Amino acid sequence: MRSRSTLEMALLGLVAQKPQSGYDLRKTFATTALRHYSDSPGSIYPALRRIEARGWIESTTGKTSPADPRRRQDYRLTDAGKKTLIAWLDQPVSAEDMRMRQTELMLRFAFMDGNVPRSITIQFLGQFARELALYAAESRTKWQQMRDLIAKAMPGRVPIHTGLLAFEAGIEGMETQVSWARRVRAQLMEDAQ
Description:
Elements: H1 6-17, E1 20-21, H2 22-31, H3 41-53, E2 57-61, E3 73-77, H4 79-89, H5 95-100, H6 102-110, H7 118-153, H8 162-192
Antiparallel strand pairs: 1-3, 2-3
Helix pairs in contact: 1-3, 1-4, 7-8
């Protein structure tokens, strides 16, 4: 697969839902959690040009209205774009993904319906839960080691350290996500029967 950014894949996922203009896409990024990836015209429009040059989307000239006489340029997904999107969605979840790309994993999950079979989504959630549970357990061990070191430096006291508390919050968040992934996977499996 050619080099691609998460922003480009988010754009493909949105255009897969329905043809949209650059303005529509910017508005979606600006008003949803996708803002994390960008709502800047300096990022979105060049990304649209790149994925259009790769043949993943194509533009069509839309209608004008008396209120806005400019020609609207809508983008739609091509067959090559659909294949690229599916390949991105269908990647296995790795330990490296857990450490570096958890947000991208949730973005992939968000675009699965309508693009990949439910079995792929169920498989993804199983891998997600397994890898995140391992990462949370590793993190919990490191947290305990840090807590023990601080306790040695402060004998007779239970260490209350903001760094440890922040680390613990992150671990508890991961454990909650593992529970969520397992529950949702079970719901999807039950629904598939």
